[in-house]
Design brief:
It contains 6 helices and no strands. The protein is mostly helical. It is elongated, with a radius of gyration of 17 Å.
């Protein structure tokens, strides 16, 4: 089950990133052109938050069954000194919780807004902040700090 969840978490990362980018581009376009916030814009907002929450749920389920996390809690004093272990035990989950919270706030605020321009502006700003936090805290393959493959397979 661990490998299935880890692979799913890896795949969903890309879906979340793509949907965030599309939503941000739609948000910037709507903000700049002052267009009406239509059903396409709202669907992308909705699917972005849905994919983000699914990814978050997979991460929450994955966290307690991960061997890295088990080691982190069983050997906390030593584990916090090892960057790889500390990243997955503390840094990654804390920053992802923050990112998901900001994206959720942006989505719900945009949904509640009655002004179309405010919807685009709210969605663009909060989704962009969330995206930056996510991009910085993904263990990219090219990272010198913590490295994992871009794609995991079953």
């Amino acid at each position: 089950m661990y490998h299935v969840l880890l692979t799913s978490h890896s795949i969903f990362r890309w879906l979340v990133l793509i949907s965030l980018l599309i939503s941000i581009v739609l948000g910037i376009r709507g903000w700049v052109t002052k267009k009406k916030f239509d059903t396409v814009d709202n669907r992308f907002r909705h699917w972005t938050i849905t994919l983000t929450h699914i990814q978050f749920l997979i991460g929450i389920i994955l966290y307690p069954i991960s061997p890295i996390i088990r080691y982190f809690f069983e050997n906390f004093g030593d584990a916090v000194k090892i960057s790889d272990i500390r990243f997955f035990g503390m840094e990654h989950p804390i920053m992802m919780i923050l990112a998901v919270g900001l994206i959720t706030f942006g989505s719900s605020s945009a949904k509640r807004n009655t002004d179309d321009l405010a919807k685009f502006k709210t969605m663009t700003i909060w989704f962009s902040i969330g995206l930056i936090i996510i991009l910085v805290n993904i263990p990219w393959e090219f990272s010198s700090y913590v490295s994992r493959p871009h794609f995991r397979f079953f």
